């Protein structure tokens, strides 16, 4: 948990937290508007304060990896990054966003506390090195095409740049052409690297590569995966949420509805506290 990793503590210095409690990374898939992002951040923070869960607001400022050319990619880089920055300041919470190229690392680092490397890009050496050199906390998502052991090399690429503030996120493995499956052995393997380990419970239930050009999902299994992850004592839980997932501009089919988030988190806290 947070107490094991000194580099995480500054993120939460203005939040109440328990050393034995997992942290939450949650927000919309992509910045749709200030009002949408603010509504989500405000409600999630309120829930997390009640349950004493450390909270990091997440949102992609740009969706570079889209199935269809007609899919929503973003409001514009600087406009979306400024919204994420404003959300962090207004609610006094840390923020995280994805980057996709070396040039984006320095740009995004001016706006957020944590840089995230998308799963498809987790082996991109120059991207990892550029992210590391910002001296921000780096969260690397495990590729759908990798076993957990393979993440050792991504981790080493960041650490070799004298950045030891690294987290690893499990998000499932490709299963056939249009599904993912979670192998929970991966959590134990990632934990052996002695860095914070996060379970992405919403991307893990994706059904990508559909002929409609829109990624589908099975959100009824989000709770199942989240329960198992907390039972395996992950350090963090990653969830994408939206007031109305059907109207979300990206990945709505594998989000948890904002109204359902508190009940899920209450269950996860109960599991966590029994174990601790």
Write structural notes for this entry:
Helices cover 34% and strands 17% of the residues. By secondary structure, the protein is α/β, with parallel strands linked by helices. The chain has one domain: TIM Barrel (Alpha-Beta Barrel). An 8-stranded parallel beta barrel has the order 1-2-3-4-5-6-9-12, surrounded by 7 helices. A two-stranded antiparallel sheet has the order 7-8. The protein has a two-stranded antiparallel ribbon with strand order 10-11. α1 (34-51) runs parallel beside α2 (77-91), α3 (102-109) runs parallel beside α4 (125-132) and α7 (222-231) packs parallel to α8. The model has no long low-confidence stretch (mean pLDDT 91).
Helix segment tally: 8
Determine the oligomeric state from the structure. Answer: single chain
Give me the count of strands. Answer: 13
N-to-C terminal Cα separation, in Å? Answer: 11 Å
CATH topology: TIM Barrel
């Amino acid at each position: 948990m947070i107490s094991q990793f000194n580099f995480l503590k500054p993120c939460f210095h203005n939040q109440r937290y328990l050393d034995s409690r997992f942290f939450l990374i949650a927000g919309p898939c992509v910045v749709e508007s200030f009002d949408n992002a603010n509504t989500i951040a405000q409600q999630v923070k309120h829930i997390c304060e009640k349950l004493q869960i450390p909270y990091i607001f997440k949102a992609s400022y740009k969706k570079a990896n889209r199935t269809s050319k007609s899919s929503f990619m973003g409001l514009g880089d600087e406009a979306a990054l400024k919204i994420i920055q404003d959300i962090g300041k207004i609610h006094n919470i840390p923020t995280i966003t994805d980057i996709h190229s070396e040039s984006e690392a320095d740009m995004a680092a001016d706006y957020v506390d944590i840089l995230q490397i998308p799963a498809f890009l987790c082996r991109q050496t120059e991207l990892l090195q550029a992210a590391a050199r910002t001296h921000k906390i780096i969260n690397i998502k495990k590729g759908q095409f990798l076993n957990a052991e393979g993440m050792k090399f991504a981790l080493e690429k960041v650490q070799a740049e004298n950045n030891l503030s690294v987290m690893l996120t499990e998000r499932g493995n490709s299963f056939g052409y249009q599904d993912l499956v979670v192998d929970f052995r991966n959590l134990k393997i990632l934990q052996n690297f002695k860095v914070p380990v996060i379970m992405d419970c919403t991307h893990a239930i994706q059904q990508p590569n559909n002929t409609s050009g829109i990624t589908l999902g099975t959100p009824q299994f989000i709770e199942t995966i989240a329960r198992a992850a907390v039972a395996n004592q992950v350090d963090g839980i990653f969830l994408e949420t939206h007031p109305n997932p059907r109207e979300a501009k990206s990945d709505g089919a594998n989000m948890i509805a904002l109204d359902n988030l508190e009940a899920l988190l209450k269950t996860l806290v109960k599991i966590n506290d029994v174990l601790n």
